[in-house]
Amino acid sequence: MTEAKRPVVLILGAGGVGLSLAGALAGVARVAVACRPRHAATVRRDGLVMEGVWGDRIVREIACIAGPEEAPSAPDLVIITAKGFDTRAICEEYAAVLRGSTVASLQNGIGNEEIIAEYAGTVIGGTVTTNFSVVGDGHVKAKSQSSPMVLGLWSGPDDESLQRLVALIRSAGILVEAVNDIRSAKWSKSLLNLSVNPICALLSIPVGKAADLRLRSVIEHIVSETFAVMEAGGVRTAWPSAKDYLDYLFSVQVPDFATAYPSMYYDIQAGRKTEIDLLNGYVAGQGERLGIQTPYNRCIADLIRFREIDGK
């Protein structure tokens, strides 16, 4: 494929997910990524160092940008990988670029796509179950991938954009699949994040420790409340009941990520804001709207918010 025919992809959010995706897609697309100055300087000088399940290599074919004035004027695709609490601010900043564009969200939590849909023409929702880390400036590692990336049309008329995105990501060697009900997929992915991540962040433990019998009751209540909210909201997942999901959580997901610390843990340790308002906080908010009691989700969200402010 010649350089002129390669699709132009703009990635907004240069953490572990965004930089890894930029590096993977650089071989099949012309990629621009909004980078922090420290990452941008290193990538421009030395290239992006990638390690892990997405390949070990140095990638130099990435354009690092500092703001919308440096962004491609008409990208074929925009992918937002930023933290969910920054979604609206990013959409406001890049509103002129997003207007009428196809925008994909590869972000944790629930609710990002609703915000993006206010600015974009076609919105594609997505989930990623790969464990990423930023090793250093311009250096990322994809530690493990327990299942394929999932993408689905959230809003807008352009289903062809979804098929093109899936084909592009697959051509970069990344496992990916398209689904008809991306809302179900987003909630399904969030179940792991809201049931385990806050507890690991609060207690400074890896995911495997969440299987401790002394923690299971709390996790069971969080999941049961979430399933009640999903049922009231008409959301269905692959697990018919909270018990079915809990069986899967402790037999498959927790062992798969046993030695990993969730991103929320690193956020707390670094004194950064977390995505709790798009996880347990979102469940609590939807529960209030639907008349469903969610004391465990509300409590865990308040505890994380306290840690965000008061740190260790």
TrEMBL record:
UniProt family annotation: Belongs to the ketopantoate reductase family.
- One annotated Gene Ontology cellular component of this protein: cytoplasm
Q: Which organism is it from?
A: Methanofollis aquaemaris
Q: Which residues form the Ketopantoate reductase N-terminal domain?
A: 9-155
Record function comment: Catalyzes the NADPH-dependent reduction of ketopantoate into pantoic acid.
The record's section on SUPFAM superfamilies has: 6-phosphogluconate dehydrogenase C-terminal domain-like (SSF48179), NAD(P)-binding Rossmann-fold domains (SSF51735)
**Where's the Ketopantoate reductase C-terminal domain?**
181-307
Documented EC number(s): 1.1.1.169
Protein name listed in UniProt:
2-dehydropantoate 2-reductase
